[in-house]
Design brief:
mainly alpha; 9 helices; about 250 residues; Lysozyme
Length: about 250
């Protein structure tokens, strides 16, 4: 093979390898030179630049910049604001409740005062309408036949028992002559063991049956004896005035 041909092939071969080698050495040299020339912070800048190339920004703009910037502090502020709001609301409700209770108490007191005033007014009105009571002295009667008859007539009138002073007086005089202790011990009643007694000579069973309430139960009591006898005569004869003999 001609010498120049080999040399050209070899030279061509070496030239290609030499180029590759030179390119590699050149790259390493450039890198070394760049590393030597760049300051110490260059690595950080390079790293940040690489990281920046990997960040993808959203199309929608960030609205809550403050929240993203403040982080945990923003949450704490929200909590404090919420507590303050709740406390203010609680105070407001307590004040409203207290005011409502005060109004309710005042209304109850006003109603009680009004009711008391109305009662007082009614009492005063009744007192004004009520006629003044006059003290009336108890009526007294003399302790004699006239007094006994008059007292009996007042009781009879109150009880609705008819009779007159004259009718009572004439029958008393015929039966006992006005002796309240008179007793009949000889007629049929005496024979039967129930003698007639008192001013109008009443037997005990009749006195008991026609006794007038408010008078004595003693058959010898003048007023009790007269009113019981008049009550009996009214039942049997219409009135003591119609009795003109033993009855």
């Amino acid at each position: 093979m001609p010498k120049n041909i080999l040399n050209r092939a070899y030279r061509r071969t070496l030239s290609k390898q030499h180029k590759i080698a030179i390119a590699g050495v050149g790259a390493l040299g450039a890198a070394a030179l760049a590393f030597t020339a760049v300051p110490g912070s260059a690595q950080t800048v390079t790293t940040d630049a690489a990281a920046a190339q990997q960040v993808h920004y959203a199309d929608t703009p960030v609205k809550d910049v403050k929240g993203s910037l403040t982080g945990p502090h923003a949450g704490q502020t929200v909590k404090l604001d919420t507590i303050a709001t709740k406390q203010a609301e609680a105070k407001k409700q307590a004040a409203a409740k207290k005011q409502a209770e005060a109004k309710k108490k005042a209304a109850a007191q006003a109603a009680a005062k009004k009711a008391a005033q109305e009662r007082a007014d009614k009492a005063a009105s009744r007192s004004a309408q009520r006629p003044a009571m006059q003290m009336v002295a108890a009526k007294t009667y003399p302790d004699n036949l006239d007094g006994w008859i008059r007292e009996s007539l007042d009781i009879m009138k109150a009880k609705g028992i008819p009779g007159s002073y004259h009718g009572l007086h004439k029958n008393i005089m015929r039966e006992s002559s006005g002796n309240p202790k008179a007793i009949n011990d000889w007629d049929i009643n005496a024979i039967n063991g129930i003698p007639s007694k008192g001013l109008l000579q009443v037997i005990p069973p009749t006195f008991k049956a026609y006794h007038v309430a408010g008078t004595s139960w003693n058959i010898y009591d003048p007023v009790a004896n007269i009113t019981a006898a008049a009550n009996y005569a009214a039942d049997k004869y219409g009135t003591i005035d119609n009795v003109n003999s033993a009855y």
